[in-house]
């Protein structure tokens, strides 16, 4: 009886269908989503069927004369619940659950009503990381100022966006910042008045967001303590010494190789004299 009703529903869908395209439903991995079955006024449902249309066509749930059934072999087996109002709840959601879904309903007068919905499942945004890079001060840079670059990064997940905000402010000051690499890198010119100013990188997608806050002035070049060298001074010493050690190693290796060749050649020259015994006439 139920099987016959199912085939009748599919046939009526093709012949008498009134289709309604629903809105996109957004959710994230681990959550549940409720697909509401909207009915026109005066539509008294007799039979209903929920299906997955894409990426694969699967039967998810049915209702025949008030009898609800969800034990169909599909990727949502054990994760689908059909409510008495014919809304379908799916969860907990997985990363591959995005797709198109439809509900087909037949009323007591034989009218067919079809509604299509789309589910888009996103990963939850992880906490981002921020690196602070300090520009080497030039001759034209005013004293007690610092040019910094804040680089924000989060794992590569779909539809992610980057934005920045100055804590305690609605917006950045005019002409004090620049954005690069689709908002991932923020360039700032800081002064003494900015020593306690914090900046936050906000990473978001359509269903979640997270942020991390840094105080960039803490990384700026303060007056160096006695005996303290900057990274620039260290490079000026380390790089030449490393090159000298590398050249010395190459020279020693090359000298050893040449010495070995000369020794082998000398041995070859002496060998024939030692191989022939000295023969003397005996009186």
UniProtKB/TrEMBL annotation:
One of its GO terms (molecular function) is signaling receptor activity. Residues 262-283 are annotated as: Disordered. It comes from the Eukaryota. It is found in: Membrane. InterPro entries: CD2/SLAM_rcpt (IPR015631), Ig-like_dom (IPR007110), Ig-like_dom_sf (IPR036179), Ig-like_fold (IPR013783). GO terms for biological process: leukocyte chemotaxis involved in inflammatory response; regulation of B cell differentiation. The chain crosses the membrane at residues 234-253. This is SLAM family member 8. The lineage of its organism: Eukaryota, Metazoa, Chordata, Craniata, Vertebrata.
